[in-house]
Write a structure and sequence with these properties.
Blueprint (H helix, E strand, L loop, with lengths): L2 H9 L3 E4 L1 H10 L7 E4 L2 E5 L8 E2 L3 H8 L11
Parallel strand pairs: 1-3
Antiparallel strand pairs: 1-4, 2-3
Length: 79
């Protein structure tokens, strides 16, 4: 594995990127009042306004596996 790939993997480890609507719902569930990023149960939840409102994305393979059972899942490279 190249150094750039290792850096990218660690940078996105345990991070979930959410569109505005999904982020607001998760933030309310975690009783967070302010901010566009918060930590919850060892994960970092980040609002990303580039995503569609209800969309969630992660580059962490372990987190993606965990989420598969709880959300509609479609890999980005799937047609």
């Amino acid at each position: 594995m190249r150094d750039e790939e290792r850096t990218s993997d660690t940078q996105h480890k345990n991070k979930l990127y959410c569109g505005s609507e999904a982020f607001v719902k998760l933030k309310a569930k975690a009783c967070i009042l302010y901010g566009n990023e918060f930590k919850y149960d060892g994960y970092t939840i980040v609002e990303n306004i580039e995503l569609t409102p209800g969309q969630m994305m992660t580059r962490d393979k372990d987190l993606a596996e965990l989420l598969k059972g709880h959300v509609d899942y479609k890999p980005l490279n799937e047609k």
